[in-house]
Amino acid sequence: MNDAPEISVVIPVYNEEAILESSVVALHAALREHGWRFEIILAENGSKDRTVEIGDALHGRFPEVTLMRHPEPNYGGALRRGIGRARGRFVICEEIDLCDVDFHARALTLLRAGEADMVVGSKAMRGAHDTRPWRRRAATRVYNGMLRVTVGFRGTDTHGLKAFVRTTLVPVAQACVVEHDVFASELVVRAHRAGLRVVEVPVEVAEKRAPSIRLLRRVPKVLRHVARLMVAIHGGGRPEPAPPAEHLDDA
Fold it and tell me: Could you give the 3-state DSSP secondary structure of residue 52?
């Protein structure tokens, strides 16, 4: 009997003791309510609060929850390792302050029907509802505009919610060269450039807590990593993998 989950939800977590338990308990209940076979992978990375202790306790309560540890604060490194650990046919990259099961359902409908290889939850496209503070909304638009100019990104958003066919996107994740915040963007950019079917859907976003790392502190590192991504894409970095010959829609 195949006991592998259909869905792997990967959530990078860093210093999230304030909302980790309530968010995971609510997410677990919502996923169970849908009747899906799932696992939740908490990709902890360098927390200095009680995040690890709470994650271990959640694993003890719920067999579907796994705590995976990355040795340093590195969102992209943790997300990449979580994707590598995932066992599901479909992988959903979540944020602990979102846990948007409505996005999961919409994305899975597209993926199961074979209408997309990757579904991106966009905060910036028509129909999205982004109620975060104006600085964060502006940063999203500036950042995605920068990606359009530097690496030819064709969509409206890269960072945040995304879902994909695991076997199709794992080679793309392995080809990525940048970690930290820009890994999530590189994954989407390379999926576009590999000719995969990337579909955007609008999402609703509200800030449940202040970012764990202040926006202004992130800017210099993000700029360095975008520059590295531009070199990788245009200047001899690892090539984009070719799309697989067939998709596992009947797996």
Answer: helix
